Amino acid sequence: MDRAIVLLTPAYPAPEALRADLPRLAQPPASALAVPDTAFAELTEPAMTEVAAELRETAQSAGLRLAALVSDAPLIDESPTLADRREPVAHTASPNVLRLLSLARALRARTLSLPLHAMEPPACRPHDRARAALDALRAARFDAEQHGCRLAVRMHAPPDWLSPLAARDLFDLANSCWVGLEVSTHWPALADWIDTLTHRIAAIRLHAPVPIAPLAEALARARYLGPMLVPPEVPIESLAPLRAEERA
């Protein structure tokens, strides 16, 4: 299996708009798409599944697969009193995340990219932030496994409460291959993040300018074979060196 170069598509308002744009999006060396959940926002569950199947077939006819679903719906539905919460720890993902997992399964997307928080969490102790993140990961891991879709949890920047080592510990405690971190190439000390987290990385999001050579070396060291999410501003033709075939 290739380390997939996955194009991030625009936020289409409806599935019809995405379907019409699929032929244009078939750009080597990209072999897959990451589609936004915005195109499905107004659909009920039965219609969502039907439309997703039609969209998947259209993509296949264009030589593409739908590798990832991208959403801005957060993994943590936190309240303003995150540090003081006393409610029992959930044992299942939130309804919004469950809906996204159902959509990803209908698309046959193996990755769901979503933020940890809708916005920067309220001021609280680093321990409380880490505990809330761990609770959310543990709550969602079994649902992700049941839907056959790995959660790639993203952050706009590495927060001050999370170092590479702390992030690895967090995902080790979550103890599931079905939840991982989405690392962005604009983060400082990028190689340190990749070298430290290795198999706990669920997706790599590229940002221009992409450090091709150092990134390729770090990915090879980590034996990373997950998706690389590529926004439109990154020249797709420059990314061929980042592809690698899986070895037994």
Topology (elements, then pairings):
Blueprint lengths: L4 E4 L6 H11 L6 E5 L8 H17 L3 E6 L24 H13 L3 E5 L10 H22 L2 E5 L9 H11 L4 E6 L5 H8 L3 E5 L6 H11 L5 E3 L18
Parallel strand pairs: 1-2, 1-8, 2-3, 3-4, 4-5, 5-6, 6-7, 7-8
Helix pairs in contact: 1-2, 2-3, 3-4, 4-5, 5-6, 6-7
Structural overview:
The chain is α/β, with parallel strands linked by helices. It has one domain: TIM Barrel (Alpha-Beta Barrel), CATH 3.20.20.150. The chain is 38% helix and 16% strand. The chain contains seven helices and eight strands; from the N terminus they run E-H-E-H-E-H-E-H-E-H-E-H-E-H-E. It has helices spanning 15-25, 45-61, 95-107, 126-147, 164-174, 190-197, 212-222; strands at residues 5-8, 32-36, 65-70, 111-115, 150-154, 179-184, 201-205, 228-230. Strands 1-2-3-4-5-6-7-8 form an eight-stranded parallel barrel, surrounded by five helices. Strand 1 (5-8), helix 1 (15-25) and strand 2 form a beta-alpha-beta unit. Helix 2 (45-61) runs parallel beside helix 3 and helix 5 (164-174) packs parallel to helix 6. The longest helix is centred in the middle third of the chain and has 22 residues, at 126-147. It is globular. Residues 80-84 have low confidence and may be disordered.
| Percentage beta strand | 15-25%
Q: Can you list the strand order of the major beta sheet?
A: 1-2-3-4-5-6-7-8
Q: How many domain units?
A: 1
Instruction: List the uncertain runs.
Output: 80-84
Q: How many beta strands in the DSSP annotation?
A: 8
Distance separating the two termini:
10 Å
CATH topology: TIM Barrel
Sheet of most strands: 8 strands, parallel, barrel
Shape: globular
Give, in order, the helices and strands. EHEHEHEHEHEHEHE
Q: Please estimate the helix content.
A: 25-40%
Radius of gyration: 18 Å
CATH level 1 class label: Alpha Beta
Helix count? 7
Class derived from helix and strand content: alpha/beta
User: Quick check: average pLDDT?
Assistant: 86
**Second-tier CATH architecture:** Alpha-Beta Barrel
CATH superfamily: Divalent-metal-dependent TIM barrel enzymes
